[in-house]
Amino acid sequence: MAAGPAPQGAAPLVPVALLGRCPRCGSGPLFSGLLTLRETCPECGLDLRAHDSGDGPAMAGIFIVGALAVIAALVVDAKYRPPLWLHAVLWPVLVLPLSLLVMRLAKALLVALQYRHRLRASA
Questions:
Q1: Distance in angstroms (rounded) separating the CA atoms of residues 87 and 81
Q2: Alpha-carbon distance values, 59 to 38, 65, 66 (Å)
Q3: Most buried among 20, 25, 96, 111, using CB within 10 Å?
Q4: Quick one: DSSP state of residue 114?
Q5: Are 58 and 68 in contact (CB under 8 A)?
Q6: Using CA atoms, how far apart are residues 108 and 123, in angstroms rounded to an integer?
Q7: pLDDT tens per residue, the chain (123 residues)?
Q8: Who's near 70: CB < 8 A, 6+ residues apart?
Q9: pTM summary value
C-alpha cells in the first residue's frame, strides 16, 4: 500500500517516523528525550504540545515486540534447549531496547499522522 503525496505543509511520512523529525518541516527533531516530545519544533516553530499519541506506542510495543519475543523464545527453546537462566538473561536484554525502539517509531508515526489529519480537516 503506497502512501499518497504529503499534504501541503507536511513532511514525508517515512522519514518523519524513522528519523523522529517534525511532521511539518521534516528537519527539526521531534523528541527532546528518549520518548519525550518537544514543546515546539526548533526549526519551524510548530507547537507540538497539542499532538498526543496516547497509549498507541505502548500498545504497538506490547503487540509487536511481545509476539516476536514469544515466537523467538519458543523457537530457541525447541531448537537449542538452553537452560532457564539463559532465557532469563537473554530475552530482557533483547526485548527492552526493541520495545523502546518500537515505541519511539510508533509515537513519531502517530504524531505525524495526527498532524496530517488535522491539516486535511482544516482545509
A1: 10
A2: 22, 10, 10
A3: 111
A4: H
A5: no
A6: 23
A7: 445 556 667 899 999 999 999 999 999 999 999 999 999 999 999 999 988 888 999 999 899 999 999 999 999 999 999 999 999 999 999 999 999 999 999 999 999 999 999 876 665
A8: none
A9: 0.85
